[in-house]
Amino acid sequence: MPFQPRVAILVPAPDYEERWLPAFARKAAALTAAGLIVEPRAWTDPGDLAGHDLVLPLFAWGYQRDVAAWYALLDRLESDRLPVANPVPVLRWNSDKAYLTELAAKGVAVVPTVEVAALDDASLATARNKLGADEVVVKPAISGGADGTHRIAANDAIPPDALGQRRLVQPLMPGILTDGEFSLFFFAGKFSHAIVKRPASGDFRVQEQFGGRETGWEASDAAQALAVATLAAAPAPPVYARVDMVGDATGRLHIMELELIEPSLFLHHAPDKGAAFGAAVYGVI
Asked: In the 8-state DSSP scheme, what is residue 207?
């Protein structure tokens, strides 16, 4: 009988409200088809992982709500020398969106970003001035699923949950409202597929829980080149990656986020339905 590696997939805590089982089923099916045995473990209390050949944090959804517990888990995975994909240093680096500044320093076109240690009217005005934008988006540096993300027009008050908090300030990119946000997926460094996510009318958030919708997209050469350059700037080559980008007023693409921890992979849009993803994961064991 051929060797069947055991893979622990980190999943949300039992009380996590967002629907994740359909996406889990797609990823688990791709991994099972590749010859892996899959077992879900809650990331908040995964238990003994020593008997697994690989740990995948693919559904560690909600980690941004308990950052201390998340970093403690990463420390444990590292100290126990457990095999993890993506590697723990990559996960730690990708947890805080300050990585956008590092990408920009390496010449990657990212959405212009100003980090503010404690957001107030004065610091917001300074950020707006630096960005040359009256309408901005503020978000936590450690965030997911658009948690705590707000669109703030010129005369809007700072939302209470952002006031006095560390926040990233970005211009509202025109492309998000006209063309949507583009996501490109890579497995073992090779391009797999792409989608475009569009917000509901009157919103700017593209996530499904806010009414966003996605369709398959034929990724342009410019989009693929930007994604490849972004992945090359990461601390190590990722096994799986989602590269999110959006256009400015001229249509030039900028990186919104590089998702290397727990991205939705939209495998139902992949031509091979996830075979490359399964092969990439199997290949690191």
From this structure: S
Per-residue confidence in pLDDT tens, the chain, 285 aa? 567 899 999 999 988 887 888 889 999 999 999 999 999 999 999 999 999 999 999 999 999 999 999 999 999 999 999 999 999 999 999 999 999 999 999 999 999 999 999 999 999 999 999 999 999 999 999 988 777 889 999 989 999 999 999 999 999 998 888 888 999 999 999 999 999 988 767 666 667 675 567 788 899 999 999 999 999 999 999 999 999 999 999 999 999 999 999 999 999 999 999 999 999 999 998
Q: Which CATH superfamily is domain 175-268 in?
A: ATP-grasp fold, B domain (3.30.470.20)
Q: For residue 240, which of 168, 184, 178 has the smallest C-alpha distance?
A: 184
Taken as a whole, the chain contains a residue count of: 285
Q: Are 24 and 41 in contact (CB under 8 A)?
A: no
**Superfamily of domain 6-95, CATH level 4:** Class I glutamine amidotransferase (GATase) domain (3.40.50.880)
Domain ranges within the chain, ordered by starting residue: 6-95, 114-172, 175-268
* DSSP 8-class letter at 200: P
Provide the b/e sequence for 164-196 (b: ≥16 CB within 10 Å). Answer: ebebbbbbbbebbeebbbbbbbbbbeebbbbbb
pTM (global) more than 0.90: yes
The CATH class given to the 114-172 domain equals alpha beta
Q: In whole angstroms, what is the distance from residue 32 CA to residue 281 CA?
A: 11
